[in-house]
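Chapter review: from sequence to fold.
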Amino acid sequence: MQRKVRDGEFKLGLLKPDTFAEDRLLRQPPGVCIMLVMYNRYHDYAARQLRRINENGGFSVPSKYAGEKPVAVARERVPAFKTEEDSAAT
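The token string follows.
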């Protein structure tokens, strides 16, 4: 389904202009399709801005997190991410 809407030509994480994957959505009220097209345009705008901001690799992961897995960092920082095993170990 992602291949239907992703722009595979440039591999930039963009979506094909004004598309959405499900044909079933055409049976919904027109406002639904309009919202999806608006999301599509905003997604591509945000992706382009992030790419422009980080041109030449100006932003990177802080060195103290470079070797960490994101899940481990989330468990450390956010109590809701802790599992029962984590609680039993501490």
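Two observations follow directly from the output. The chain has four helices and no strands. Helices lie at 2-5, 30-53, 70-77, 84-89.
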